[in-house]
Structure formats: structure tokens, C-alpha cells
Automatic annotation (TrEMBL):
Gene source species: Lederbergia galactosidilytica
Record's protein name: Cell cycle protein
UniProt-recorded Gene Ontology molecular function terms: lipid-linked peptidoglycan transporter activity
Key word Zinc-finger present: no
Membrane topology: Multi-pass membrane protein
Length: 396
């Protein structure tokens, strides 16, 4: 009998290959989407630039081990929270919508204007640091409370909720409901894998479900009761989501065009650069409509399959590691990507209300793509810093 020892590679080339395929899809879709002429800018070179910059950032992050991530997590979280508060302060001062430091775009002041870099959205980077802090808080809590009780579990739940609540509320005030919901999705994922007793989680989720359903019912039929909570444009988005054809010249315009665009693609699509339906923001939030119209059900299915593959790879990474901190991070990353994909694709087919959430790694975006690549860098660091050996034996 002989035995052989095989060292698992420090680099997860499977994830890198998946990202390369997504980058190719992104560049093809963005190039074709630009024919609408909404913007007089070629976004393809800019997307390549952000992918290159994101790859460098991912490599740098990958070199950080779990201890280094824990040390910087609270500092990075604090800086991002302060920047989010700064946006609200600028807005509260009543400065011009075109104020050079933080201009308003699409009714929200969510960006800083950085010379030479363009618009930077702090909320995108806060997703990274929120995941890191939630992982640190959860792993640290279990080290401190070795013997679990309902009291210790409840205390952990409060800490996780407080950490998430601060940035979520700041982002909600911008207003940016879509991004705030991403934070909630990340929180729920970490809670589910944190080991908190189901005696606490079942009643919590049940009550949350009832409250959410009740608020949606009130928003549709008794919206006057929510005055001051939801903005007028948010009411319109709910109504246009439920009945887009009656609002096709207003809030339902994008959804109607998205449905026509994807539907007209049928099975194999109209072909590259042959899209005919005009779709605003087709290079960013509505990039999936370009894919659906020009490459049909087949092309759309391939893109969705790439996301399933990426989520599977990240999930496997989280399950393979024996470092709880990394496991919680992978759970948060999976939730972040999955929610983005479900919400973005869902809003283009009428399954979800329209929000300004891009399709990860596919939509054009500076801050969003850079932040997503940094998140992948964190996932790659799991294998990079974790030496594991596989033993095999064969009988001669």
C-alpha cells in the first residue's frame, strides 16, 4: 500500500475562471447596450479599467489573513459610516444638487465626487466592511460564550442588529431603499449560520413576515397611513410594479419596456447588436434586458447559471474552511450576491419592484464592481491562507 499527499492549490482558479466569463459577458452586453445613445460615452474601456483595478484590489485583499481582517474591520466600518453620515449632512445643509463634492443623481445624494476617479459610492464598500464586522462579532461572541444560552443568543442577535442598523438607516435616508435591503439580506444570512437558537429565530421571522406583509398591504390600499415613512415616488413604484401597463408613461415605463425587451428575445434572441426596444440605463441596472433580447432564453440561462456556479463555489469555500470567521464571511457574501441577482433580474421580469440595484459583475459600475471584486478577494483569501492536505492510498 502506498500513500500520496496532495496539496490543494492556494489560488481558487475555479472562481477566477467564473469571473473571467462574467467579465466577457459584461463587456459584450455593455457594448451592445450603448447603441441606444442615451449617453455619449463608451463604457467598455471604463468597465475594463474597473475590472483591472478591481483585480488588483482583489489580489491585495487576498493577501490579508483573518487576523488582519479582524483588526481593520471596525476601522473601515467606522470610516464608511462617517462618509455616509457626511452625505446626509451635506444634504441637510441644503447645498446645490450639483455641489462638487457630493452631487445628487437620480434623486439621491449617494456619491462623492473624487477627482480623477469619478463618483464613488460609500454604500457599496460598506457592504464589505459590514460583512467583515458581522463575522468578527459573531465569531468573537462564540469564543466568549462557549456555553450557549437563550440569553447569550439574544444578546448576539441585538449586537448583529445594531451593527447592521446604523448603515442601513443612513442609506435609507439618502434615500436608497434597494441598497438598504441588501444589508438586511446580509444580516439574515449571518444570523441563520450564527448558531442562534431557533426558539428565537422562528418567532422573529414569523413576526417580521407578518409585519412586512401588513406594510405592503397598507402601502397598496391605505397608503395615507404611511405618510412620512415612504416617499411619493416609492408609492408609485409599488403601484407600477403591480400594474405597470396603467403607468407605462410614468413609473411603469421601465418595467413595460423591460418586459417587451426580454419577451421579444424569445428562445435564442435577435442576435448581437440587434436589440430594438429602447431601455434607459440598459448598460447598468437594466443590462439583463439587453442579454434577454439579443441572446434570448438561452443566453439569459447561461448568465444565470454563471451566478449559480459562483454562489456554489463561494458556499463550498465557506463549508470547507475550519475558520468560523471565514465561514460567516462566505455566508454574507453569498447573501449579498444572491440578493443582487434575484432583485435585479426579478425587477426586469416584473417579479420584484424596480430598485437601483445593478447585476453584479455584469452591469457597468465603478464603485459596485470594485467592491464586488474586493469581496471576491476576501473569499480567495480563505484558500490562500488555509493549507489543507488530501491523503489518498492505493493498494498495489
Amino acid at each position: 500500500m502506498t500513500s500520496s499527499k496532495k496539496v490543494i492549490p492556494k489560488i481558487d482558479y475555479g472562481i477566477i475562471l467564473t469571473l473571467m466569463l462574467m467579465a466577457l459577458v459584461s463587456l459584450i452586453a455593455i457594448y451592445s447596450a450603448q447603441k441606444t445613445g442615451q449617453y455619449k460615452v463608451n463604457f467598455v474601456p471604463k468597465q475594463i479599467q474597473w475590472y483591472v483595478l478591481g483585480s488588483v484590489a482583489a489580489y491585495i485583499v487576498m493577501r490579508l489573513d483573518s487576523d488582519q481582517m479582524k483588526k481593520i474591520s471596525w476601522y473601515a466600518y467606522g470610516i464608511c459610516a462617517f462618509s455616509l453620515f457626511g452625505l446626509l449632512a451635506i444634504d441637510a445643509l441644503g447645498l446645490s444638487k450639483e455641489f462638487f463634492l457630493a452631487p445628487e443623481r437620480n434623486g439621491a445624494r449617494s456619491w462623492y465626487q473624487i477627482p480623477g476617479a469619478g463618483l464613488i459610492q460609500p454604500a457599496e464598500f460598506m457592504k464589505i466592511f459590514l460583512i467583515m464586522v458581522l463575522a468578527k462579532v459573531t465569531s468573537g461572541h462564540h469564543v466568549k460564550f462557549v456555553h450557549k444560552t437563550l440569553k447569550s443568543d439574544f444578546w448576539l442577535l441585538i449586537k448583529l442588529g445594531a451593527v447592521t442598523g446604523v448603515p442601513a438607516l443612513l442609506i435609507l435616508k439618502q434615500p436608497d431603499l434597494g441598497t438598504a435591503l441588501v444589508f438586511i439580506a446580509i444580516l439574515l444570512a449571518v444570523i441563520l449560520v450564527s448558531g442562534i437558537s431557533w426558539k428565537i429565530l422562528v418567532p422573529l421571522f414569523a413576526v417580521s413576515g407578518v409585519i412586512g406583509s401588513a406594510l405592503l398591504y397598507i402601502a397598496v390600499y391605505y397608503h395615507e397611513l404611511l405618510q412620512g415613512i415612504l416617499e411619493p415616488h416609492q408609492y408609485k413604484r409599488i403601484y407600477s410594479w403591480l400594474d405597470p401597463w396603467n403607468f407605462r408613461t410614468d413609473e411603469g415605463y421601465q418595467l413595460v419596456n423591460a418586459l417587451q425587451s426580454i419577451g421579444s428575445g424569445m428562445t435564442v434572441g435577435k442576435g448581437f447588436y440587434n436589440g430594438e426596444v429602447y431601455m434607459p440605463e440598459s448598460h447598468s441596472d437594466f443590462i439583463f434586458t439587453t442579454i434577454g433580447e439579443e441572446f434570448g432564453f438561452v443566453g439569459a440561462s447561461i448568465v444565470i447559471s454563471l451566478f449559480f456556479l459562483l454562489i456554489y463555489q463561494i458556499t463550498k469555500t465557506g463549508l470547507d474552511t475550519k475558520n468560523p470567521f471565514y465561514s460567516y464571511i462566505c455566508a454574507g457574501v453569498v447573501a449579498m450576491i444572491a440578493f443582487h441577482v434575484f432583485q435585479n433580474i426579478g425587477m426586469t421580469i416584473g417579479l420584484m419592484p424596480i430598485t437601483g440595484i445593478p447585476l453584479p459583475f455584469i452591469s457597468y459600475g465603478g464603485s459596485g464592481l470594485l467592491a464586488n471584486m474586493m469581496v471576491i478577494g476576501i473569499v480567495l483569501s480563505v484558500r490562500y491562507h488555509y493549507k489543507r492536505y488530501m491523503f489518498a492510498s492505493d493498494e498495489e
